[in-house]
Amino acid sequence: MLDRRSLLAGGAALFATAACSRSTSSLGGGGANPLPIPPLLDAQPGRSFALQVQSGTTSFYPGRPSDTLGYNGSYLGPTIRVRRGDDVAVAVTNRLKADTTVHWHGLLIPGELDGGPHQIIAPGATWRPTLPIRQPAATLLYHSHVHGLTAEQVYSGLAGALLVTDDEEQGLGLPSEYGVDDLPLLIQDRQFENGRLVMPGGMMVAMQGRRGDTTLVNGAVNPLAAVPNRLVRLRLVNASNARIYELSFSDQRSFYWIGTEGGLLERAVALESITLAPGQRGELLVDFTDGRPASLVTAADTNSAMMGGMGMMGRGAGRTDAAAPATVLRFEPRPSGQARASGAVPTLLASRTRPDASKAVRRRRLILNMGMGGMMGSGNGGGGLTINGKPFDINRIDETVKLGSTEIWEVSGEMMRHPIHIHGVHFDVLTRGGGQPDVLDQGPRDTVVVKEPVELLIRFDQPAKSAPFMYHCHILEHEDNGMMGQFSVA
Ligand SMILES: [Cu+2]
């Protein structure tokens, strides 16, 4: 049996050492690992930050090192914080033996700064974009987006959280002590064999996306978060390759949903569960003042292109339990010693000007195809994974959009649920399946799940002329195998 007592023996200790105010020695909890808090890389003082893309080893289980990738560390990366209004000078150095890119997922910046497949960073090279931060406070993420290797590089660890802050957000009195009552939570599923990370492959992976039977938060298995017994802000980031989580608390407590990919909602929404697809983020306020422990749990993974579910078909790694319900993160509230003056949830969070549907000048339709070719589509030449029947071609611009215009994109997906992500924009969900959007569709978005057609109202305010923007399925194996297109904005 694996000894899960402590993560500290392994290479992931670099995160734990950065957990500053959290005492790791105070965490008992019978086999749990203290939730690692990624180091905070605050770009505000110098309006700059640097990332080293590197390989290393990480012991998810003590004494069982796995080969992994990370930014400024062996697995995942620091939490980068930038401020609205700043121009942030970035240096990303690639210490890998392979090409990589760093995509600023959700940042509204011109195409040549986006970090997509066109901004390759060769081994040994340094990429130096300057990022103009001009959008409201939000929880974003950054990750590899080198075409054909995105899924493998993200699975190996190339992802991190990117926070945008501004005066309006800071004036709300939301929980804001990083790592204490304001927690970034990167949720991932991974497959282990004998305690070592393995990368499932084969036809099922190409078809369904790479999934695993173990849930990690911030790189820790079986994590436990000690939180103050007050209102706590959770910044959920689905950094998984393919799994859609249906998240709730083990004691069915309700919580407030306050933010989407694009930033804060206009009003907090009381919920008991929330769905989070790969690439999506959700900010929650959870009240721990009663001091009672609770677990964030996920329902079974039902997103499958196969009749009868994944378990019938076996899996690349020979496991059939990756779709099971799982505990994601346990919380243990502790007396915080300081009574928080304003523990209340603000009624109004943000005001925003929504795009006007009557201003839409054009309608486009995207169908995320799997076809029967998807059955054979294990990589190149299978042909089933496309958008509108066309597999991704980096030399083809699929759509040309006028800068400053508003459009309606109708997007649907075949055979299973697909998270569509569009670079360089935020959008609103106008309709879903021909009717009203779901409660969970509201707010400014950059990634939404489609199967039934959804109508997205999009304003294109960022130029993409010298390099195009991408739109793609955020099941990374679908994206790598062709379910991606590109558009210019000029
Ligand atoms: Cu897909």
UniProtKB/TrEMBL annotation:
<dbReference type="Pfam" id="PF07731">
    <property type="entry name" value="Cu-oxidase_2"/>
</dbReference>
<dbReference type="InterPro" id="IPR008972">
    <property type="entry name" value="Cupredoxin"/>
</dbReference>
<dbReference type="InterPro" id="IPR011707">
    <property type="entry name" value="Cu-oxidase-like_N"/>
</dbReference>
<dbReference type="GO" id="GO:0051301">
    <property type="term" value="P:cell division"/>
</dbReference>
<keyword id="KW-0560">Oxidoreductase</keyword>
<dbReference type="Pfam" id="PF07732">
    <property type="entry name" value="Cu-oxidase_3"/>
</dbReference>
<keyword id="KW-0132">Cell division</keyword>
<dbReference type="InterPro" id="IPR045087">
    <property type="entry name" value="Cu-oxidase_fam"/>
</dbReference>
<dbReference type="GO" id="GO:0016491">
    <property type="term" value="F:oxidoreductase activity"/>
</dbReference>
<dbReference type="InterPro" id="IPR011706">
    <property type="entry name" value="Cu-oxidase_C"/>
</dbReference>
<keyword id="KW-0131">Cell cycle</keyword>
<dbReference type="GO" id="GO:0005507">
    <property type="term" value="F:copper ion binding"/>
</dbReference>
<feature type="domain" description="Plastocyanin-like">
    <location>
        <begin position="381"/>
        <end position="489"/>
    </location>
</feature>
<feature type="domain" description="Plastocyanin-like">
    <location>
        <begin position="53"/>
        <end position="168"/>
    </location>
</feature>
<protein>
    <submittedName>
        <fullName>Cell division protein SufI</fullName>
    </submittedName>
</protein>
<keyword id="KW-0479">Metal-binding</keyword>
<dbReference type="InterPro" id="IPR002355">
    <property type="entry name" value="Cu_oxidase_Cu_BS"/>
</dbReference>
